[in-house]
Amino acid sequence: MFQTIAVVGSGTMGNGIAHLFAQSGYNVHLIDISAAQLEKALLTINKNLDRQIAKGIVTDEQKKSALARISVFQDMEKGAAGAGLVIEAATERIDLKLDLFARLDKAAPPECILASNTSSISITKIAAATARPGKVIGMHFMNPVPVMKLVEIINGYSTEKQVTEQIVNLSKHLGKTPCVVNDYPGFIANRILMPMINEAIYSLYEGVAGVAEIDAIMKLGMGHPMGPLQLADFIGLDTCHAILKVMYEGMSRLHHAPCPLLTNMVTAGCLGVKSGEGFYSYAAGSKELVVSRRFSS
Ligand code: NAD
Fold first, then answer.
1. Residue of 3, 108, 145, 225 with fewest CB within 10 Å of its CB?
2. How does residue 287 score in pLDDT terms, banded at 50, 70 and 90?
């Protein structure tokens, strides 16, 4: 039933969502206010498709057709017109999302489902910014989107049952495993993940151990594929900070208050992989994981 998918935001998640849908045969309207981000997103999708070719997952032909299905827009209203589904993956800020959804409600066709990829913000609140709350839902993909199997689907207070069913079926059609949850701060994925990341940052801040030791303990001792500090860099430190704030404000639990070190890093523009430096530094071309000079002994 969905032919054209509009994706709002072309950063870490938006480019992955656009990649997944284009590779699965959907027309994608990829929207961002920043022309530079759109350009970067297309380059990333190109590079990630090449990686899939090297692994034998897609052919050259499939890469070409996937890229041809993606059109980019800076004008959100134009990009959302004619879409059967909009997935919003813009910056994790409630004021921004409320404004985007009020505008999307006017720009998208009346039957269009409006989904948010938010990590923590209330779907019920986002839905209340529209005149179609029954058609608003959380569709929370994991990073990197083409690789990770889970889609956490969040029912807002007013989400219609039929809308949930459509999004569950769509997720399966994309080769993902949907899990439906209710609308409380952080949902399930981040409600459980973020306190661990925050505690890892507190452990560094309080001098209990260094970056490499904290990550090695969680990788080698707990079998995690990535240590919590590396994972925080990968998610984006600004995004982690925003999620923790939503959880702290929503549940008033002290362990959700963002560690002051995380706050300082975000204020200083050290956002992890996307800015080139976080707990590790990501110098262009280097594949080796190098602890940021600030944290190396
Ligand atoms: P990001 O910072 O990498 O990208 C955000 C993009 O939104 C940027 O390209 C920015 O230019 C764009 N944007 C900002 N305002 C806009 C507007 N008014 N219109 C159009 N585009 C706009 O962030 P991200 O990590 O991709 O996160 C996006 C969403 O996905 C957030 O809600 C986040 O919580 C969620 N999420 C992130 C992860 C992750 O691992 N990073 C995982 C799951 C969900």
1. 225
2. confident
